[in-house]
Amino acid sequence: MSAQLSQKHPTGLYILFFAEMWERFSYYGMRAILLLFLIDKVSGGMAMSAGEGAAIYGIYTASVYLLTLPGGWLADNILGQKKAIWYGGIVIMIGHIILAIPGGAVLFFLGLTTVAVGTGLLKPNISSIVGELYPEGGARRDAAFSIFYMGINLGSFFGIAIVGYLGERVSWHMGFGAAAIGMLLGLIVFRIGAARHLKGLGEVPPAKIATPESTAQSGKNSVLGYGLIAALVIFLIVLQYTGTIDMTTAQGLAQGAGVIIVAISASYFLFILIAGGLTRVEQYRVLVLIILFLAISLFWAGYEQAGTSLQIFAERHTDRMVGGWDVPSSWFQNFQPAFVLIFAPILASLWIYLSSRNMNPSIPVKFAAGLILLGLSFFVMVAASKIAVTGQLTSPLFLTFTYLLNTIGELCVSPVGLSSYTKLAPKRYVSQLMGIWFVGASLGNLIAGLFAGGFDEGNVMQMPALFNQVAIISTAFGLLILVFWKPIKGWMGGIS
Ligand code: GLN
């Protein structure tokens, strides 16, 4: 592990580490069996088609990240981060308890919605308290985020292993129950630890003092906001009535959600570019943020197929027998957190080593590398699916190698992107733009769900062409960024 990661950190970091570890245990654990449960027709699942199931999965995971916007707002303006994390955790646990009750569709969707609302409240705020522990910023803060990222992936690893096994091999609801227990453990750690080690952090924000200018500005913003909502509602109604999107089906609902997410992000970027009172340098930096937003959305759209098309591939087309034991298909999702745990310290050390020789690749180059690695990982799936269409089970090495490539890609974009957003955002828009970063994850997850619609049982022959599309789009966008890395770096106005 790098020297940076091993320096001394406040105990508060480890409280947040373990609380987030258990929260991610519940999130990724439940997510690992979600699609399988939705499409299961024989063991008490929801008996949906792969297309419907993946669309629901996409709407759920997209909502989780979209709800971080109101979650962040509530913490900033009313609750303070600490309370938001506590209540968010309780809501998540209740959601998993509801899912653990075998009670049909209504109860199931209630549980799913509850988990999404709770996660929106917890997830953005737990990361911002990590930042608050290091008001000085700098390398120690970066190191703290790397440690925190390990906590996320440790939780995710054990969540997929335990919830995945229980869900697939014992009962779906037992798996959901295990997720609830994980969240309970996170709450206990947070309750005991926060009182002692996070004193004075993430408290209720001081009342904001309104000036005549700020009141007039927020009045104008509200009018713009309501105008946007009205236009969006009308647009969706038109799409429904012209038959462009049928929002009475799961897939149509997911497409509608996509329109909403794209509209929110596009109008937000336009708003700050035009009416945000930015200097020329800041405007160029926002342009870079837009490019990174498109890149990260595309990246997650491929990467998050771990829970959709790649999960289906693991279940239906992969030889999972090891020493006479049939490995649960959800366990394949575990390659991502496992590879993060192995490679995060290696990549962090590589960046430090390259920096010491003045050779650290710039942010656009790292993003290009991430997208190209993702593209290559899907070329591996093209090869695998060409074997699968002949009716043979494929070697597990294909998925292993796919995950190896796309996880190294993740380490080039995800931690780097998070910190670049905090650095490139004009100061007064930092928290909002952090929210937009999560909207990128939301959009990506939604596309990952919609894309897997092509993986219905009857469509097996399409698989190579579908994987090929992801591979080509991602590699091409990566190459485009690579070609233009110099001007993009120039627009960053001296930030690296
Ligand atoms: N795997 C990371 C987490 O769970 C990043 C996920 C994301 O931003 N899409 O926090």
What's the number of extended β-strand segments?
A: 2
For the largest beta-sheet, the strand count, sense and barrel status come to: 2 strands, antiparallel
Cα gyration radius (Å): 22 Å
Just name the CATH architecture: Up-down Bundle
CATH superfamily: MFS general substrate transporter like domains
Terminal CA distance = 24 Å
Low-pLDDT sequence parts: none
Task: Give the structural class.
Answer: mainly alpha
Bound molecules: glutamine
Helix amount, in percent?
Answer: over 70%
Percent range for β-strand residues: under 5%
Q: What is the fold-level CATH name, i.e. the topology?
A: Growth Hormone, Chain: A
**CATH class call:** Mainly Alpha
Count of distinct structural domains = 1
Strand order of the largest sheet: 1-2
User: Helix-strand pattern, N to C?
Assistant: HHHHHHHHHHHHEEHHHHHH
Count of DSSP-assigned helices: 18
Average pLDDT reading: 92
Membrane topology: Multi-pass membrane protein
Pfam family, one: PTR2
InterPro entries: Dipep/tripep_permease (IPR005279), MFS_dom (IPR020846), MFS_trans_sf (IPR036259), MFS_Transporters (IPR050171), POT_fam (IPR000109), PTR2_symporter_CS (IPR018456)
Protein name: Peptide MFS transporter
